[in-house]
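We emphasize that the prediction below concerns an isolated chain of 488 residues; any contacts that depend on oligomerization or on bound cofactors are therefore not represented. The input was used exactly as deposited, without trimming of termini.
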Amino acid sequence: MTSNALPSPSATPPCPDTRALGPLGLGVLLSGGFITIFDLFVVNVAIPSMQTTLSASFAQINFIIAAYEMAFGVLLIAGSRLGDRHGRRRLFRLGMAGFALASGLCGLAPDANTLIGARVLQGAAAALLFPQVYALIRVSYDGHARRRAFGLMGMTLGLAAIAGQVLGGWIVHADFLGLAWRTVFLVNVPLGLAAWALARHIPESREAQAASMDWPGAACLAAGLALLLLALIEGPARHWPAWTFACGAASVAVLLAFARMQRSVKARGGAPLLDMGLIAQPGFAAGCLLVMLVFSTASAMFLCYALLVQTGFGLDALTAGLIFAPASVGFVAGSMAAPRLVNRFGTPAIAVAALLYGGATAALMVKVGMAGAALSPWSLVPALVWLGAAQGAVNTPLVNVVLGLVQDHHAGMAAGVVSTLQQVGAALGVSAAGMLFGGALQAHAHADAPERYAHAFATAMQFNVAAIAVSVALLWWLGRHRDTASLG
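Result of the prediction step, given as a token string:
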């Protein structure tokens, strides 16, 4: 699951107005968290329907998923700073209205390219509203009430992940008014508008000394990552023409320019989007890479699973969601057990969970690859439960471990960076796994659909196994790094 997200990067308590955040206001905030995470997951079960009605290519399907994640991730810090500066309720309402509008554009998209553009807008709107949810809860409650509210938020995000698979599958399968996949987006329109109207019950708050927004830095970062995504997705689909290599090279140049720009902003006494001094710390840099790797594997798994069981084996969206639902239950169980295990055993507990996560991924890869066309999709349930539980035990404590590698005065910036990298990693995971999946489909073009997609799934999961193996090594190193730091 990729539903773990972090609070707003701001660290200084703001000044809310005199009204308290009541149950209705909290419910509206939670709906904002639910709707943004739901749309991370629901698209996966709608992929075959999109392919059929839009004649979408494999590369376009990758962009439909990754565009939302990339826009969401790149603009998260911007959304947080704008809320701190101009009012968190105002940005929540603006983001919710934008999300409803963008969802309507998604649902009405006449072709795949239009849908990709609408998904970018949807991700940008999510980045405006999502940070306000955490920030408003943080400033509205204290002590036990705050812990309870954040607990409800965590439960809401977990339910959104499950609903994206099961409820989303039922919506697509029901095919209301013959709209097929379009309903999963159109349902956001009335829900989003209702939340926008009810948001008047949320007290406004802002931070008087909020940092200004580094728009040139945000544009540079977005351009660099977009060029990288374009090269990774279009390269394999078009057999790597020269322009895809040019995009990759340009991406590196633009991201290096971004790093220089951020150093320059800090040297002038401004507020950079990303403090490069923070990234230069070996422990935190390793933690950032770890976050990207772990969250890349989740999105890759969702994409490849949906293609395997729906396009390859012809299951309807509802059945595909029901098969995967136990994995979501396992994720919740693993998430609940993780804090106690980490409190008792420290970072090694996360490393062991990552080993189990890698083992579950390898088991799925081997089982699907060996069974081929003879695979029974329901036989995947035990391995999926194992995978979900292990993934929950890794994801839930991971961000706290990474944030624990920086000093307190860097906590706000670090939280913003890690939040961004969760979504950027997810987008890049879709690109990398999609590249392997598409290549395997072409290599086995002579086989029937179940056989082709089984081989493609097994091939794509090699990326996940490799990413998790590197993650285990990084967790081991971080454990030693923290022990050395504590002795020093």
